[in-house]
Amino acid sequence: MSGMTLAHPGTLRGRLVTLEPLSLDHHDGLVDAVRDGELWELWYTIVPRPEQMSAEIRRRLELQERGSMIPFTARRADTGAIIGMTTYMNIQAETPRVEIGSTWNAASAQGIGTNPESKLLLLQHAFEQWHCTAVEFCTDFHNHQSRAAIARLGAKQDGILRAHRRAEGYLRDTVVFSITQPEWPGVRRGLEHRVNRHIAAAGDLRLG
Fold it and tell me: Which fold has domain 12-202?
């Protein structure tokens, strides 16, 4: 059972965002995206600096080779611009169960619907193709923005892992959330509603 793997989903396409399998070819676009908002300056997040991007891409691809991560690059569907990264991680293929994490998005892409649609695409594949029993989300206790965003997805907090891992300069408490298979239909409807709202709003702006 330990040798089991989950089949790579390939490219996941939405109306606002496209998730492509991560590649070294994405390096320059990811550097531009991470500079949009200087995301690495947020002390409670783990986001690569521009000079660290190549090493971070290679790290994620190595984890993919080991079967513990499936990493993606996120692009805006309207412009094709690279806006960030996300992954399936801590993959337990025998259950099956995965975590969605190691996610960051350029500042200009926040609040435009790309993140909820990314989660919709990832959750839909996890529950409807892989038949996962649950999908997990984890974040730093101090990252209140991330905690609120995860809760808005419809995930429920499972608990807090105290002194869970070492971050830069401190010992991090990790807040763990999850969505279970029976909860997925309701979560899917909520995410679809949010995405449709963003699409309608974008259409109104273009008409104006």
Answer: Aminopeptidase (3.40.630)
